[in-house]
Amino acid sequence: MIITDVRVRKVAKEGKMKAVVSITIDDEFVVHDIKVIEGEKGLFIAMPSRKASDGEYKDIAHPINSATREKIQKIILEKYEAVAEEETAAEE
């Protein structure tokens, strides 16, 4: 699996959610609505989810194992940081 595109849409409002991301896998499959969240231990990703009838949130799409989750998270957070740096440089 190769992530061939990452699109970051930064969130303008204050809060823990910093961006919403879409990734393309192998130029063939897209996953939208991955969130970049600021947690107590730093940034992490939350996969797309939906609120179930019991009030719990359930992932719609997610990696099967932790190694794949870490791979996806690393790529997304690197792209998020690059976009943030570009915006900071543009403001100066």
TrEMBL record:
Gene3D superfamilies: Stage V sporulation protein G. Transmembrane segments: none annotated. SUPFAM superfamilies: SpoVG-like. It holds the Pfam family SpoVG. Keywords: Cell cycle, Cell division, Septation. InterPro entries: SpoVG, SpoVG_sf. Belongs to the SpoVG family. Could be involved in septation. This is Putative septation protein SpoVG. The gene is spoVG.
